[in-house]
Amino acid sequence: MGVPVVLGLEGEAAEIVERHEIGSVIEPQNARAMAAAIKELAADPQRRAEMRANAGRASLGYERKRLALNMLEVVADAVARHQPRRRPSPARRPWWAR
User: Fold this and answer.
1) How far, in Å, CA of 8 to CA of 15, rounded?
2) 60-95 pLDDT per residue, tens
3) How far apart are CA 68 and CA 64, in angstroms?
4) If you ran DSSP here, which 8-state letter would residue 11 be given?
5) Using an 8 Å Cβ cutoff, are 20 and 54 in contact?
6) pTM above 0.90?
7) Distances (CA, A) of 89 to 70, 81, 82, 86, 93
8) DSSP sequence for 33-65
9) Cα–Cα distance between 25 and 9 in angstroms, integer?
């Protein structure tokens, strides 16, 4: 099981929290919004349970090993697509027959 979060950040972290419905995203450095979001979660055990379950499922997609393997696949694919095309080499004769 995961843990519901109250996040005061923008960017990719906020997108992950919203996409997976694992917590609340608030305006950065807004203490009142943070307090309100925490009170709201404290008052709703059903919502906390749903977010906790969502967080547990979402965390599987962000394991370091899985992320590393995904990155290796992306890099390998990019390298394979950007290899210079090689011309077929003519049949090479031994140096003594040149």
Assistant:
1) 12
2) 888 899 889 999 999 999 888 887 766 666 667 666
3) 6
4) S
5) yes
6) no
7) 35, 21, 20, 8, 11
8) HHHHHHHHHHT-HHHHHHHHHHHHHHHGGG-HH
9) 7
pLDDT in tens, 9-50: 999 999 999 999 999 999 999 999 999 999 999 999 999 999
Count Cβ atoms below 10 Å from residue 50 Cβ, excluding itself.
Answer: 14
Residue 18: both structure tokens together: 């919203």
User: Could you tell me the CA-to-CA distances from 48 to 15, 19, 23, 60, 76 in Å, in that order?
Assistant: 19, 16, 8, 19, 40
For 72, the 3-state DSSP assignment is helix
